[in-house]
Amino acid sequence: MDFEKRSDVRASHAAAGTTEDTWRIGNAEMASRFFLGTGLFPNPFVQNEAIAVSGAEVLTFAIRRVDLESAEDDSILQHLEPGKFRFLPNTSGSRTAEEAVRIARLARASGLSDWIKVEISADERTLLPDPIETLRATEILVKEGFTVLPYISDDPVICRKLEEAGAAAIMPGGAPIGTGLGILNPYNIGLIVEEANVPVIVDAGLGTASDAALAMELGAAAILMNTPVAKAQDPVGMALAMKLAIEGGRLAYLSGRMGKKRYASASSGFDALKVK
Amino acid sequence: MAELTINGSRKELDADTLADVVELLGLGGRPVVAEVNGEVVASEKWAETQVESGMKIELVHFVGGG
Q: Which CDD domains does the protein's record reference (chain B) (predicted)?
């Protein structure tokens, strides 16, 4: 987004970073720019508290076989207030487009959402997304009427191709899933944002609040994260930290940061420093 | 008795329909999605979906994830 466009946004949303600065995926209008994952939390109570303070409107899930040997209901949905959230199921565990499409159809059959996060891992060590299978799955699922949000590497060219294939948003990773390494290539994320005509959601690899702020300063529309919140010593405190960082980074982006300079320039003018 | 493969395990169940299978496994009323021989079957159709020996059934649900 160029500066003039940003100024328009700022003018029409005096309270940028708050509920007046909304954005869209398909027909869904959202105020929160924080998508929260639901894995790895110490228990459902901490998870619900973290979800509440995060302000997240969209929660992510995985699809797995029901454990027939366990009588206990381990479905994540039993702990959530019905109707309060939009659901973004993922296709984690898939290694090919066909497997991802199958999981997506199962997810949609739940009747809870036609959004799908395409997540196809090339190998278990890095969990890096397979760009070719991801593109194939996106093409198929868009044709089947899904709202497709592919998780993808931070490569501007594959991101463009996913957009051309009809992805409703593009979700480049900052670093491999669960590493907490932050945004390894801010240049690429910035370029992806610059070129995209759909929302860019930085997904995966973030570790702490400054990573979330940086993503937003680079112009991301939103952040998707799970591990940094769930695995913090205080997940509820970290959920709030992330929310504030996302809002701060968003406001900094809309406000247009100063240019970087190599040498100092005194705020009061240099002459004022001289004692004559 | 129907000899079925459910979530990768062999099970013998006294079931005529998919709805019976879900009940007999104690999953009635839970947010479960079913697939029979690779095709998703919507929950409204469980009661009219006949099961017979040799069928492969997958029962999945939402779990925590990013």
A: Ubl_ThiS
